[in-house]
TrEMBL record:
Keywords: Signal. Residues 240-447 form the Lipid-binding serum glycoprotein C-terminal domain. Pfam families: LBP_BPI_CETP_C (PF02886). The keyword Electron transport does not apply. GO terms for molecular function: lipid binding. This is Lipid-binding serum glycoprotein C-terminal domain-containing protein. The lineage of its organism: Eukaryota, Metazoa, Chordata, Craniata, Vertebrata. Residues 1-20 form the signal peptide.
Length: 453
């Protein structure tokens, strides 16, 4: 891949992992390379300003250049940017030579190879470098120096060429360090972690480069494993939003792991006390009795009811009609609060509820934020009832449970998910106005980027 002097940034790292299929693709468009090339230019300019040319005393063949070159550099004053990659102006004031000025315009063509370490960290290396010194004007104050002009030029050319290429390598070393620094796990929420690593060497295609990433979630340092092994995920060639610098695709397996991580950490469990404010009129045997008369028969005197919602099954993630659907099946356990009893709570019933949630996605502060709302009907099955024999149909409770979900459970899930999930991160790169879209079988985020120090 030929890139003009460009430290190409991308990333990532991390330790060997058990997941073998990738679940995220980061597609970097040509536009991004152009942009990075532009911003890295400044970095290179700075780094070029530190170029020092060794004392040519050791160089016997180029003796006539000695002294002059040394002083040029010592008093070198880098003034700025040509329209090509590097513009360098050096001024020399000297009693013998008079005022001397050297102007150099150069371009560096470098082959930069992107590869991955055994740890899954990206590394950039220069495999070939060709400095092209396009223009070099040397103006001496005194005429007699013209006689040695050509030799000096050759010397400066050679030295500068070497140093320009070294600067590119130095800049890349810096970038590689940044990749490495970012190998730490992203921590978020309660005991949740997320690490991205490269699955294989990034692949360049016409106009873009695809980087296959493995996103690994952990809960209290335990890796979240999905029950079924997922396929490798690829972003279709035509999937890019060409106006964006970066396009990312997130597979079904990515979201399964994401929700599974929140479920494993207990984030989808909720205890609702009978005093819960927004369900003030619902948490009693009489409110339940309105749906299931057997409850009223068992408790003729209305008593308060506590509730516990527990989700332990893996949520099922699907993409349907350009929506991300999350199917959950929590157990809802209800307890009658019997204040006189030594056992304060008496089990009333446990019902399994199957609910479909539509997940809306948003990007905020480099994080993927999810929120959910209920879709369609709830499906209820009694797991156990403790209020006596009941031939009652659990669907009688549908409206009641829907109210509990809308007033308490879903806001809680929203709250749990609101911490957001870290997106793949590129050192010093910030997403600008990212757009999220749900496609047929993946979620896409397209974004422009901005360089930050
Ligand atoms: C996914 O691709 C990687 C590397 O290309 C390969 O090692 C792995 O076996 C693939 N996984 C599956 C599930 O096909
Ligand atoms: C230039 O070199 C000095 C001394 O080695 C260092 O402190 C400084 O950060 C360098 N500047 C750039 C822009 O590389
Ligand atoms: C969940 O959050 C989203 C976005 O904030 C909101 O639109 C939705 O109504 C919330 N759902 C519930 C049940 O609170």
């Amino acid at each position: 891949m030929k890139l003009i002097c460009l430290a190409m940034l991308l990333f990532l790292w991390v330790s060997p992992i058990s997941v073998t299929s990738n679940n995220v693709v980061l597609r970097v468009e040509q536009k991004a390379f152009d942009f990075v090339s532009q911003t890295q230019r400044e970095l290179l300019q700075e780094s070029f300003s530190n170029i020092s040319i060794p004392d040519p005393k050791t160089n016997k063949e180029k003796e006539c250049g000695r002294g002059v070159v040394g002083r040029i550099i010592n008093k070198g004053n880098i003034l700025g940017v040509g329209h090509t990659l590097v513009g360098k102006v050096m001024n020399l004031n000297d009693a013998i030579f008079g005022e001397t000025e050297i102007k150099v315009r150069a371009t560096v063509l470098a082959d930069i190879e992107v590869s991955k370490t055994s740890k899954g960290v990206a590394t950039l290396a220069v495999t070939d470098c060709k400095p092209i010194i396009q223009e070099m004007d040397i103006t001496f104050g005194l005429r007699f120096l013209h006689t040695i002009l050509w030799t000096i030029q050759g010397h400066i050319r050679e030295m500068l060429g070497d140093r320009l290429c070294q600067s590119v390598s130095t800049v890349l070393e810096g970038v590689n360090e940044e990749f490495d620094d970012s190998t730490e796990k992203n921590l978020f929420g309660d005991d949740l972690g997320l690490q991205y690593s490269l699955q294989n060497r990034p692949m360049a295609f016409g106009g873009y480069m695809d980087i296959d990433l493995i996103a690994k979630y952990t809960v209290k340092d335990q890796v979240v494993e999905l029950p079924n092994k997922a396929q490798n995920f690829t972003l279709p060639p035509g999937a890019s939003n060409k106006d964006a610098m970066i396009n990312m695709g997130f597979s079904k397996a990515y979201f399964s792991s994401l929700f599974m991580a929140f479920v494993s950490s207990g984030g989808f469990n909720l205890e609702i006390p009978s005093t819960y404010e927004s369900l003030a009129n619902q948490m009693s045997t009489s409110a339940l009795g309105a749906h299931i008369p057997e409850v009223s028969s068992r408790y003729p005197q209305p008593l308060r009811v506590d509730m516990k919602i527990v989700l332990s099954q893996t949520p099922v993630v699907t993409f349907q009609s350009k929506q991300l659907i999350l199917q959950i099946s929590p157990h809802v356990e209800m307890f009658v609060v019997v204040s006189n009893s030594p056992y304060r709570n008496q089990h009333l019933l446990t019902v399994n509820v199957v609910a479909s949630l539509v997940a809306a996605l948003d990007v905020e502060e480099e994080k993927l934020k999810t929120s959910v709302s209920l879709q369609g009907d709830l499906n209820l099955v009694f797991v156990s009832v403790s209020f006596g024999k009941c031939k009652c149909n659990p669907s009688l409770l549908s409206e009641y449970i829907r109210t509990v979900f809308e007033k308490a459970y879903l806001p809680h899930i929203n709250d749990t998910l609101s911490v957001g999930v870290p997106l793949p991160k590129v050192p010093n790169i910030q997403f600008i106005e990212p757009v999220v879209k749900i496609e047929k079988n993946y979620a896409a985020i397209s974004s422009n980027v901005q360089y930050t120090e």
